[in-house]
Amino acid sequence: MRQLKLSKAFTLMESGPVVLVTTHDGKKDNIMTVSWTMVMDFTPLFAITTGEWNHSFSALRKHRECVIAIPTVDMLDQVVGIGTCSGADTDKFSKFKLTAAPGKVVRPPLIRECLANIECKVIDIVNRHNIVVLEAVAAYLDTARKEKRTVHAVGDGTFIVDGRRIDRRKMMACKLPYGV
Amino acid sequence: MRQLKLSKAFTLMESGPVVLVTTHDGKKDNIMTVSWTMVMDFTPLFAITTGEWNHSFSALRKHRECVIAIPTVDMLDQVVGIGTCSGADTDKFSKFKLTAAPGKVVRPPLIRECLANIECKVIDIVNRHNIVVLEAVAAYLDTARKEKRTVHAVGDGTFIVDGRRIDRRKMMACKLPYGV
Description:
12 strands
C-alpha cells in the first residue's frame, strides 16, 4: 500500500462508501462495519455515529484510536458478515480471513485486503448524539489493486456499487481545496 | 410526489448521495449543495456539516428548518452550479430552472425536479464542529421518475454515478429496523 497525502484522504470518504473500522481494546483487534459516516473538513476530519450498543465503542472511547478501512465490492459478503456479528464473541479477522497489518501511528491495524486505510485519532465524542469525531493522521491506498469499486449501503439490506465516474473538475476548480 | 413513510427516509440518505438543501431566510428561498452528510438514527436523524462560510447557514440557524432534496445524475450540472455560486447574489431557483414546491410542515420549499425530498427541523447545532442535526418530519419520493441514479461527490471535482444494486436482505435481516 502506498502512503497517500493527508490532504487527499477526505476523497476516500466523501462519496459515502460503507467502511470497516478497526479498533484495539488493549488485548485484541476488532472490526465493525459503518455506513453512518461524514467528512467534516479537508484537514481531514471525519464523523461516525456509533454508541454503547456497539462492542467497538468502548475501545474507541478508551483508547481513542481507530483505522477506517475501505473495502470494495468483491468484499461485500465480508462487510455484511462483519456488520452482523459481534466482536464480543467473534475474532472477526480470523472468521472473515482478513489480514491485520500494522499502521505507523495508531495501534488498531490496517486491513491489508482493503483498497484504502486511514489511521485516525478520536479527537472528540459528542455524547448527546453518539458522534465520534476523528482526525486522520496517515492514509494509504493500494494502487496495485484491480477492483476499485466501493459499495454504498442503502440501509434496507441492499447495496449500490460504484458506477461510472463523471468529471466536473473545471466547473469545480474554484471550490477545490489546495492539494486535491 | 408520493409521501414516503418516515421510517424509510434514512434509506434515501444512507448511501451518501450529494444532496441539495433548501432554506428560507424570511424573505426568499435558497439552495446549497452538500455532500458532507450522515444518517444518525432511523427515527430519522441526519447530520450535515456547514458553517458561517455558507450563505444558507444563517437561515438554517435562525429559522431552524430545511428541506433535503435528492437530485439524480441528469441534474449534475445544476448540482455543481448550485455549489459554486452564492445565494448572497443569486436566485438559484431561477438561475438553475428549478421549481419550488410547498412542503407540508416547513417553510423552505421542496424541489419538484428531485427524486426525493425530506422536510427537516434543525434540532441541534454542535457549534464546535459546525454540525447541524436535523430531524425529518416528512418525506416524499417521485415514484414516476425514470432516472433514479443518484450521484456521489468524490471531493476532487469528480462524481460517481450509482451502478448496479446488490441484494443482501437475507443476510442483513437481523439488523434491519422495523418498517424498512
